[in-house]
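W.,

You were right to be curious about this one. When I first looked at the sequence I had no strong expectations either way, so I just let the prediction run and decided to look at it fresh. Below is the sequence, 290 residues in total, followed by the output.
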Amino acid sequence: MYACDFMKVLIAEKCGFCHGVRNAISVAEKTLMQQKDRNSVYSLGQIIHNSNEVERLAKIGLKTVDEVEHICSGTVLIRSHGAAPEQIAKLRAKGFDIVDATCVLVKRVQRIAEELANDGYKVVIIGDEDHPEVQAVMGCAMNVVVIADESDLHKLPHNARLGIVCQTTQSPEYFGKVLGAIGRSDFNELKVMNTLCNEAIKRQESAVQLCLQVDIMFVLGGLKSANTRQLAELCKKYNKQTFHLQNWNELDKNILFGKNIAGVTAGASTPDWIIAEFVKNLEAFNADSG
């Protein structure tokens, strides 16, 4: 008899859609419903970092484009990660209808970055320079510096007044580590603003608690989702049998053999139906039939 015949599945107390993502999806659906011509509704970049949800919205009319120049006419959704002021200005200049689905926490970071710059600080963002949220914030001030780790410290100007913000989905541990490195650099003044997302932190804490109780841990979410990657990396520190998957179809069922208890969590951009489908299939999995 295989151990996985008795597979028990535990779900993290906090997982899945956060308020910002849920709002962005709701705004997209309402916008599509209100438009007579759904073929003219665009999202400037993926509205959230989950390919399954993006595909679902595409089927009901939402078109995803990467550049303003790729839009001819219609309504443009600003995704949950936000957009740089320059991009929004281009949209307005072209006469597009703009529907803003930016997460309120991301808007707060953008506002803080602008205020820091106006107060004479050199704006420094702790996070991933390639992430759309960070790129949007970079557009809110001149010559913003992005620090991902200690190897980026050379970007900091000497003896400057530094205004620090952080990508909302990063972990407190990461924020503290990079902030400590910046604190050891050559600066005149340091002003630090806590811009971390409490919902992301709750998901991280819940995931760590769960992965300590299970034989195998699954973190569900888009491979491009920063907060999901953070969850997976965090869980792997406490449970080596942690796997980051986008959905049930990606699961190699061979890894289930010999496991008694499985844990499931999900990033803030992972829809409920993905989680429910995964858990249902995992609970129904039979070692004899696969």
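Here's what jumped out at me. The chain has nine helices and twelve strands. And, maybe more interesting for your project: The radius of gyration is 21 Å.

Coffee later to discuss?

I.
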